Amino acid sequence: MTLSQQLLAEETRPAVVAALVQVVRQEVADKRGISAVALKAGYAGATTVVPNLVERVLERLLPEFARALDPLWDGFLAADDTEFGSYLAAHGRAASSALLGVTDTRVAASSNEPVKKAYRAVRGKADGHVEAALPRLGATLQRHAPAG
Questions:
Q1: How far apart are alpha carbons 96 and 39 in whole angstroms?
Q2: Predicted structure pTM score
Q3: What percent of the chain clears pLDDT 70, i.e. is strictly above it?
Q4: Looking at the 3D structure of the chain, how many domains does it have?
């Protein structure tokens, strides 16, 4: 069974979304330094205006994110590795590109110019943020995909 099939199963998906919301919160909270101040302020502002923003976005994008990670999951299983988070971290560039490819495509297709402008402003640092989150992300996904 593919990663996406497991994560998107009707009985699993709500728990996956809830767990990924926690991953996002933890990743934002763990950020340090000057750039973290802007990131945390932006996150706080956005989630104040739309309290369930992260959940809504993850619910909408989970199918595409999961399918984007299917090839990496297959590689993880073939490698007989034990921790998907470590596997993703070891393949950070490919994993980051797969995930950001989803958002890049979505934003490019959007007619919402303010969203496009905001995305362009943060996209340059997104690879680093995504790669830093891969161990936690992979561990979270593996808990919901028992084939691994």
A1: 18
A2: 0.91
A3: 99
A4: 1
Largest pairwise CA distance in the chain: 45
Q: Note whether residue 42 is domain-resident.
A: yes
44 vs 144, higher pLDDT: 144
Rounded CA-CA distance 100/25 in Å is 18
Two structure tokens written together for 95:
């994993």
**In this structure, is residue 148 part of a structural domain?**
no
CA-to-CA dists, residue 34 to 69, 73, 80, angstroms: 31, 34, 40
Residue 138 near residue 88, CB atoms below 8 Å? yes
Q: Is residue 56 part of a domain?
A: yes
Model confidence band, residue 134 (pLDDT cutoffs 50, 70, 90): very high
Q: Is the pLDDT of residue 36 over 90?
A: no
